[in-house]
């Protein structure tokens, strides 16, 4: 989860600056100031802070949110999560938030079991599409014609294309694409049933298809970042994020992505922003000021300029060039989305994705048993492992092991102390592995690089085509600096495995950030929200 | 010395800035305090409301009449008409569902309410787009009376039951088969009323009786089974219909009041969709009777307040609910295609029948 705060401090400063010039300036200047006030008279003002739980795709709107905060006087704090996670937060009351802003209204209405949400309104729209390397799209004959999910599946199954998508159990774009795949494989247009999901053929087909997923991610914006860092063929993502990726790709002189709208697997994210009513009317006013601002003409135009659509009837003239036709963007097409199955079927489909259909994970945990971890750090680490390895705990947070999953544990200090492996993906085997962790004793110095290099060596002994691998370093991050050891292993083994870190005790993440940056991983604070960290790591693998 | 003067100027400016900001942000707040300061403390009433009536219950004019004449301060939570009956009613003073079926459901679960009154009426209509109207017209489903469009429900049901693809009736731009998006009939009233209407149509135009439920229910299950995920609020479905275009929601079942209210409250936005959006009156249609269920004395006061002549007038003119006394033509409403009178009406089946339909569609 990423956090962002939008303050009103600048407003104070600006008002102050204006008045300063007003104090010293001519009457003429004072008039302009009045005019400005008149223009902003329609903007609702309010006090206080609102906390929004938002889909990560809205990270791109930070400039607009910042202006919103200054115009309305409302301080805005945003936490970013995948939309499916937002649904879960809403189901359990969303106590920490005054507003939710998932990618699509389905997560809002499914999550709002306690009738807490009011004033929900769509802020923008964007379809979930395939972005395919321009030359590959050309080669596959996808340019300038109607493409179906089946055509895309054929390319994937024929080994001509690999792609990345977000985790269907965490993010709206991943879930939408996944449902589109299921419909296409079933040869149905609507009305997916629970029985459909039990079909042998479907299970085999979808498992094979998801085997073509190169890298999964917990959220759409992070997927885009990952895509830009590495070299992939295609990604399933929002049209607006593909537009954003293309701007960056072209500015770096790289080949852009061509956007394909599969007619039998399209969905639209309608980005609803809704108030979560915890009975504080001041918050409600603040929320309405923020929402009204975001729906104002000026803000809507700025939002459109980021590649989001604000009307079903095409794009405004001023933002026309944002929706570049050369990238395959088609604003004339009527977006006719597939139907989302009913809530029970959808949840069953998501469960199956997590436990059976997606590529099995290959998790290599490197656990820091060095002296600095003694006490609090060690206790936190052991507790964390009980959350992920003991399946009773894991299933509570949608973290359970999937079919064929491999779990290894490397115990380290400045040496490799021991390596243990769960015999298989069964609950018992994972519980036995946990017992070994729980019984392990703290030893000497710290070398995370040595451990990560060992983990890479472990990973290289598997057929990585068949797994989504991840190295998960669990440490306080204070290590001898020995980056060379890791770099050598990375270069020699030549495999692409992200190194994620979860920090404990009095952590210093600097060294871990460096590893994450180099491998496409991320660093999480295990002392703040462990479930969140695991959910994110699991999203990636 | 100079430094000190600058310091002083700065201080003055800071004070002025703070004062200015206070004026900018505090102005409206002050006004409210003064207003409320004059009147005696109000009774707060809170309850569950179907989404389509939120615009009405947030109308400043309505709220000020309720506040000044009846001493009420109204708060609400949004819930489907049937959902609200099984929600936690602790601390609630009223329920405001959208049908008498919901009232009977309440009575079955909780016994007789303190008081209940039908306060607003509106017929079920189908919202669609110009392109779909033209296709239906060419298929002979549409009867026109001036600018009012009536759709032959028996023929529409036939298209739906035959899995007719949009492409088959000349709209290849739309993916999938002809269907009407509704709210969840087991949770929300507009979907429920549409199910009632379909039940009658499937029963050859006769009000469905208990004896025939077993014959009709499987057909309803097939029709609704094809809809997949259904919204639980009529207002959410309607705003998605308006927002996401013909591709996402070719046809949506809703209340006639919704388009009238939208045109009144959002004239500019309405203007931009006015030429594309079409109201289809199902022939026959069913009435949706919005009934207020008072759970205590405060709820009873709310019934009196909403029966106030001025409030009833606002309900029609600004929010499109037909209240009996204020029938005016669409010329005055500014929304084309609104029928002067609703004449072709089917009877909603009895509560027993509807209860079995609700359970069957859950």
UniProtKB/TrEMBL annotation, chain A:
Q: Which PROSITE patterns match?
A: PROKAR_LIPOPROTEIN, VWFA
Q: Which domain of life is it from?
A: Bacteria
Record InterPro entries: VWF_A, vWFA_dom_sf
Question: What high-level taxonomic lineage is stated for the organism?
Answer: Bacteria, Bacillati, Bacillota, Clostridia, Lachnospirales
Keyword check for Signal: yes
* VWFA domain span: 362-541
| Protein name, per record | VWA domain-containing protein
Organism this protein belongs to: Claveliimonas monacensis
Q: Which Pfam families does the record associate with it? A: SBP_bac_11, VWA_3
Which positions carry the signal peptide feature in this UniProt record? Answer: 1-24
TrEMBL record, chain B:
- Protein's UniProt name: Substrate-binding domain-containing protein
Tell me the organism. Claveliimonas monacensis
């Amino acid at each position: 989860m990423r956090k962002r705060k939008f303050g009103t401090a600048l407003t104070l400063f600006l008002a102050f600056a204006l008045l300063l010039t007003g104090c010293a300036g001519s009457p003429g200047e004072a008039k302009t100031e009045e005019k400005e006030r008149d223009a902003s008279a329609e903007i609702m003002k309010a006090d206080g802070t609102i906390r929004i739980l938002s889909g990560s795709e809205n990270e791109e709107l930070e400039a607009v949110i910042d202006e919103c905060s200054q115009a309305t006087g409302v301080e805005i704090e945003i936490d970013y999560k995948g939309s499916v996670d937002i649904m879960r937060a809403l189901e359990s009351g969303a106590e920490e938030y005054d507003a939710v802003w998932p990618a699509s209204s389905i997560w809002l209405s499914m999550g709002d079991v306690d009738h807490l949400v009011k004033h929900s309104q769509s802020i923008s729209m964007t379809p979930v599409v395939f972005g395919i390397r321009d030359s590959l799209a050309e080669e596959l004959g996808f340019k300038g014609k109607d493409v179906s999910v089946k055509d895309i599946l054929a390319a994937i199954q024929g080994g001509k294309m690999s792609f990345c998508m977000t985790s269907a159990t965490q993010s709206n774009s991943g879930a939408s694409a996944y449902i589109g795949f299921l419909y296409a494989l079933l040869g149905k247009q609507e009305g997916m049933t629970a029985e459909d999901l039990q079909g042998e053929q479907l299970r085999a087909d979808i498992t094979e298809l998801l085997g073509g997923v190169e890298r999964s991610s917990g959220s759409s914006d992070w997927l885009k970042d990952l895509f830009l860092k590495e070299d992939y063929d295609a990604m399933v993502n929002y049209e607006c994020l593909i537009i954003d990726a293309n701007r960056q790709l072209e500015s770096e002189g790289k080949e852009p992505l061509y956007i394909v709208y599969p007619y039998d697997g399209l969905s639209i994210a309608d980005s609803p922003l809704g108030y979560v009513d915890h009975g504080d009317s001041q918050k409600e006013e603040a929320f309405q000021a923020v929402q009204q601002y975001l729906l104002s003409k000026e803000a809507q135009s700025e939002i459109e300029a980021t590649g989001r659509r604000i009307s079903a009837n095409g794009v405004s003239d001023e933002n026309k060039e944002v929706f570049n036709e050369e990238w395959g963007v088609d604003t004339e097409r009527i977006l006719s989305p597939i139907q989302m199955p009913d809530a029970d079927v959808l949840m069953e489909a998501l469960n199956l994705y997590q436990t059976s259909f997606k590529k099995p994970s290959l998790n290599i945990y490197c656990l820091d048993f060095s002296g600095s971890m003694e006490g609090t750090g060690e206790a936190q680490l052991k507790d964390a492992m009980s959350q992920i390895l003991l399946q009773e705990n894991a299933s509570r947070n949608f973290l359970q092991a999937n079919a064929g999953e491999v779990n290894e544990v490397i115990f380290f200090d400045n040496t490799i102390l021991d390596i243990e492996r769960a015999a298989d993906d069964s609950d018992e085997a994972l519980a036995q592995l946990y017992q070994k962790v729980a019984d392990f004793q703290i030893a000497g110095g710290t070398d995370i690089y040595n451990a990560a290099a060992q983990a890479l060596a472990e990973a290289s002994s598997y057929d990585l085509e068949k797994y989504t691998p991840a190295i998960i370093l669990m440490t306080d991050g204070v290590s001898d600096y020995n980056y060379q050891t890791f770099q050598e292993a990375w270069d020699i083994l030549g495999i692409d495995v992200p190194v994620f870190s979860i920090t404990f005790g009095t952590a210093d993440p600097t060294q871990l950030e460096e590893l994450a940056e180099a491998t496409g991983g991320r660093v999480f604070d295990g002392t703040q929200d462990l479930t969140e960290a695991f959910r994110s790591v699991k999203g990636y693998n | 010395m100079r430094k000190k003067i600058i310091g002083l100027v700065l201080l003055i400016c800071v004070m002025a800035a703070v004062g200015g900001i206070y004026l900018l942000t505090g102005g409206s707040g002050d006004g409210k305090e003064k207003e409320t300061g004059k009147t005696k403390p109000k009774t707060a009433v809170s309850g569950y409301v179907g989404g389509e009536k939120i615009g009405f219950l947030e109308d400043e004019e309505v709220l000020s009449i309720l506040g000044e004449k009846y001493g009420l301060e109204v708060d609400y939570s949004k819930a489907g008409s049937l959902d609200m009956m099984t929600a936690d009613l602790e601390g609630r003073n009223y329920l405001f569902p959208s049908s008498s079926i919901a009232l009977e459901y309440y009575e079955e679960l909780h016994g007789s309410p303190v008081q209940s009154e039908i306060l607003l009426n509106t017929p079920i209509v189908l919202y669609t787009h110009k392109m779909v109207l033209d296709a239906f017209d060419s298929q002979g489903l549409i009867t026109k009376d001036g600018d009012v469009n009536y759709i032959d429900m028996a023929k529409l049901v036939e298209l739906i039951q035959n899995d007719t693809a949009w492409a088959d009736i000349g709209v290849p731009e739309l993916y999938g088969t002809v269907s009407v998006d509704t709210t969840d009939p087991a949770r929300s009233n507009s979907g429920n009323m549409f199910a009632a209407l379909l039940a009658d149509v499937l029963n050859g135009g006769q009000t469905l009786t208990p004896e025939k439920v077993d014959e009709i229910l499987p057909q309803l299950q097939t029709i609704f089974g094809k809809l997949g995920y259904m919204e639980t609020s009529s207002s959410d479905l309607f705003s998605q219909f308006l927002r996401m275009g013909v591709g996402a929601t070719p046809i949506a079942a809703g209340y006639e009041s919704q388009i009238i209210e939208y045109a009144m409250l959002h004239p500019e936005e309405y203007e931009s969709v006015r030429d594309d959006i079409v109201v289809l009156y199902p022939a026959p249609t069913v009435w949706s009777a919005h009934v207020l269920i008072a759970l205590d004395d405060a709820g009873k006061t709310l019934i009196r307040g909403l029966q106030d002549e001025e409030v009833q007038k606002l309900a029609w003119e600004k929010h499109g609910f037909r209240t009996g006394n204020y029938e005016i033509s669409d010329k005055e409403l500014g929304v084309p295609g609104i029928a002067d009178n609703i004449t072709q009406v089917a009877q909603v089946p009895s509560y027993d029948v509807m209860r079995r339909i609700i359970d069957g569609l859950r």
